[in-house]
Amino acid sequence: MEQELKALIIKQVQEAKDEVNSLGLSTLFAVDHQKVVGELKGLNMSEVLNLTQMEKVVVEISEDGKEILEKGSPEFKLVAELLKRGDKAVKKELDTAFGEKYVRLGFAAAIKSKWIEYDKPSDTITLKNKQVDMSKDETFNQLKKFTENPDPSSHSEELLKDYEKKRKFINRNKIKFYKVEKGPRFDQGLKKQEADLTTEMLSEMQAEMKEGKDWSKLFSFKKYNYLAEGKKINTGGLHPLLKVRTQFREILLELGFQEMPTNNFVESSFWNFDSLFQPQQHPARDSHDTFFLSNPRYCKVLDKDYFMRVKNMHQSGGQGSVGWQYVWSEEEATKNILRTHTTAVSARMLYKMAQDFKSTGVFTPRKWFSIDRVFRNESLDSTHLAEFHQIEGLIADYNLGLGELITTIEDFFCRFGIKKLKFKPAYNPYTEPSMEIFAWHEGFKKYVEIGNSGIFRPEMLLPMGLPEDVSVIAWGLSLERPTMIHYGYKNIRDLFGHEVNVNDTKKSSIYCININ
Ligand code: FB9
After folding, report:
1. Cβ < 6 A, ligand 1 pocket
2. What total number of domains does the chain contain?
3. Which of 481, 485, 495 to probe ligand 1 with, by most ligand atoms within 8 A of CB?
4. What angle (nearest 5°) sits at the alpha carbon of residue 494, between those of residues 490 and 498?
5. Whether residue 516 has pLDDT greater than 60
6. What digits encode the pLDDT tens for the residues 180-198?
7. pLDDT, mean of residues 303-319
8. According to DSSP H, which parts of 457-499 are helical?
9. Which domain holds residue 497?
10. Same domain, 355 and 458
11. Is there a domain that residue 28 lies in?
């Protein structure tokens, strides 16, 4: 069809005595004007034709006008229908058949012309004038004339106003069209436009050249369209959480932190709670808050000495602490769970640092971070699932205090443009002192909680065997909260889980999270 239209256009331009334009071609070939313009633009691109954009006002038929061109004027349609139905019809049936508005228009005009009578009780219309001259459908005939000659200057202003303003059967609109002339490569027009140069074509050109002919006219090539968009490649996309994780990870690495190995979702209660000096009666440790494994239900104890030192610290304290003063259960400590925080990983890393200190006699200060999934047996709601990603940072060095903790947290958050922080005393079983972290939210005009922090207790560090003057400062936050704020998610299920809309993963970059 396209080749056919292209050939028709080129033939018309070849043979026309008068100016050729896209409107005329559309009427001549009875093809939609936009389709003709599309074909013309292709021929213009290959320089077969030259196009000059023009503009003019034309008469266009409105939707109501098109209905009359399709069915005839409502009053004539009504008479035609009555004649078909034995000069009578129930108005409601006609409404159903032709649309209430169309019948109402015809009804009013036919009553005015005394062509029909109407009996309201029976809702019946009766034809009274059978001599209606159906060819006198002036409205229909005039609309046909507008269609055949859409140039407003061909019709009286009075008529145009009547059909446009009063009856709204036409509109006068400014339209763009194109004057069409031969282009520099018009003679190549009907030749197939080659898109690629092949070895076969080169051989044919060479043969032409050897025969002394003009090889350059042998093939016609499509003009290279530098504006053409590249082929859309259906790529994957990083999940919003992973984009945010990348930014947090980059910032922590820039601040000199090393990433801890977090590839164990299953953890022992010992590392998750006991090594942190979290007492076994703590509410967070029961099954309402923690997921316990049934198989394997228990873990092995690898370092019995450390295990016993932790037991003693819980039961009776030592090294300045009175402990928690309860009978500590080995069985409870060896229960396997899904880790409830990545602080369990921090505990393992600090224990390894103590082991290194023990074997080398040298303590090396370190900065560690972790970003990974943690699991809590909590009630679900629009912002909480039974799991989330915790971000945790810690520094183990000599004589660190609240001052270092606060400045470290300030350094960290200011990388996200968050400079207005407040710290509020809080309680954690394994840190003392502890602080909740708040940041000023410009949008909400209030401080919002953005994390928690503290200094690990000596009762946690000393049983590991770390030097007495080594302290560890740490802070934590979640990955989901900043991501939800940045992307504007109201429900965490739109961000994480099986209900996520995969197309969202193709959204723009996350970089420069902020909470405002
Ligand atoms: O992430 C949280 N909020 C937050 C963080 C960042 C942010 O945008 C900034 C641009 C970066 C915006 C908001 N919160 C902690 C605060 C609240 O969302 C809170 O309602 C939810 N909390 C989680 C725990 O809820 C079960 C967020 C999660 C959390 C809380 C505490 C820690 C980790 C994660 C911790 C800790 C800790 C303390 C001491 C030592 C070591 C670790």
Report:
1. 343, 390, 392, 416, 418, 428, 431, 449-454, 474-478, 481-482, 485, 513-515
2. 2
3. 481
4. 155
5. no
6. 999 988 987 777 778 899 9
7. 97
8. 458-461, 480-487
9. 241-507
10. yes
11. no
Q: What are the Cα distances from residue 490, in Å, to 240, 312, 515?
A: 14, 47, 14
The string over 224-238, giving b where at least 16 C-beta atoms fall within 10 Å of a residue's C-beta and e elsewhere, is: eeeeeeeeeeeeeee
Classify strands 20-21 and 124-127 as parallel, antiparallel or unpaired.
unpaired
| DSSP state at residue 164 | I
Q: Among the residues of 317-447, which ranges form H helices?
A: 330-333, 343-360, 402-414
Ligand 1: centre distance to CA 463 (Å): 28
**Rounded Cα distance, 311 and 280, in Å:** 11
Contact criterion met (CB below 8 Å) for 420 and 514:
no
**Cα gap 238→392, rounded to integer Å:** 22
The answer to whether the predicted template modeling score (pTM) of the entire model surpasses 0.85 is no
Neighbours of 278 (CB within 10 A): 22
Neighbours of 287 (CB within 10 A): 9
DSSP-derived pairing of the beta strands 431-441 and 116-119? unpaired
Lowest mean pLDDT among 178-192, 330-344, 358-372: 178-192
Cα gap 452→446, rounded to integer Å: 18
Q: Are strands 124-127 and 431-441 parallel, antiparallel or unpaired?
A: unpaired
**Pair 340, 272: CB distance under 8 Å:** yes
DSSP state of 232: P
Q: Which residue is closest in CA terms to ligand 1's atom 35?
A: 476
Give 163's DSSP letter: I
Residue 431's nearest CA partner among 395, 448, 456 is 456
> Do residues 373 and 438 lie in contact, with contact meaning Cβ atoms separated by under 8 Å?
no
Structure tokens given for 223: 């003009």
| Residue labelled with tokens 């290279």 | 224
Q: Are both 259 and 153 inside the same structural domain?
A: no
Please indicate, yes or no, whether residues 274 and 126 belong to a single structural domain of this protein.
Answer: no
Q: Please check whether residue 164 lies inside any domain of the structure.
A: no
Quick one: which H or E segment has residue 63? helix 63-71
Helix 91-98, helix 74-84: angle, nearest 10? 120
Average pLDDT in the 43-48 region? Answer: 87
> To the nearest 10°, the Cα dihedral for 435, 436, 441, 447?
-90
